[in-house]
Amino acid sequence: MMALPFVVMVGYPGHVVKFYLVDELLRFYLVSTYADSLSQLHDEVEDGVLALQESNHTYEEDRLLYHALASRMSARPAFVSIGGMVSLGRGMMAAFINISLTYAIIVYQYRPGGTGPCN
Prior knowledge:
Elements: E1 8-12, E2 15-19, H1 21-54, H2 60-75, E3 81-82, E4 86-87, H3 90-109
Helix pairs in contact: 1-2, 1-3
């Protein structure tokens, strides 16, 4: 995926930092959406297995297999994790945007020659 042309520049003459903001946000949004879709599909498959288990047309030995599969699926839900520490999703996207905006505002306030608290 190529970088989008929209670039946010923060800095002062001679020291410019470029943020490819739109490109990175779109990539992160797509990955977050795929992670949420995976979790949603896992829930739908689990509901389908439970429906098969409770169906009147299911043989008794198949009910036991469906019950075991549903138990395993509910014990280990599908999700995408970052380093095994936090799960990725739209909640992570909101946190990422909040942190990015806060950082950009702080950098803007403390720029040389500006009217921030350090000037």
